[in-house]
Design a protein that fits this description.
Layout (H helix, E strand, L loop, with lengths): L12 H4 L9 H26 L13 H13 L4 H14 L4 H9 L13
């Protein structure tokens, strides 16, 4: 089984790729990297703006606009944007008065399978 990067949803990418070529073009890779960078920076900015609304605890706020951005980016671009969101969420929590444990859990939780709490039953 061979792992490949699937960037076929970029408009016109198949037309630029020679027949029989499995690897995406440099233009497609640069576009994907640029999209990840843009989403990561936007998430970081939205999260820092949301943290300005914190009143009691410096890392707890009632409004978190970064969630809306992450949801929209994931719905529009798919799960391929998760690395950018993960890194940005980790950096936001690491640069705020939070610990790496909180940032790891908050970043990885959407990617983990949903399981029910068996101790509560």
């Amino acid at each position: 089984m061979r792992a490949t990067v699937d960037l076929d949803d970029i408009p016109g990418e198949e037309a630029r790729r020679p027949p029989g070529t499995l690897l995406p073009s440099c233009r497609a890779i640069a576009g994907y990297a640029g999209a990840l960078l843009g989403i990561g920076v936007a998430y970081f900015a939205c999260a820092k703006a949301g943290l300005l609304l914190a009143s009691i605890n410096p890392n707890a706020t009632p409004i978190w606009p970064a969630t809306g951005l992450a949801l929209a980016a994931t719905l529009l671009r798919g799960y391929r944007v998760c690395p950018a969101i993960l890194l940005a969420a980790f950096l936001v929590n690491a640069t705020t008065a939070g610990s790496c444990t909180i940032s790891s859990e908050n970043s990885l939780r959407p990617a983990l399978p949903n399981r029910k709490d068996t101790a509560a039953q």
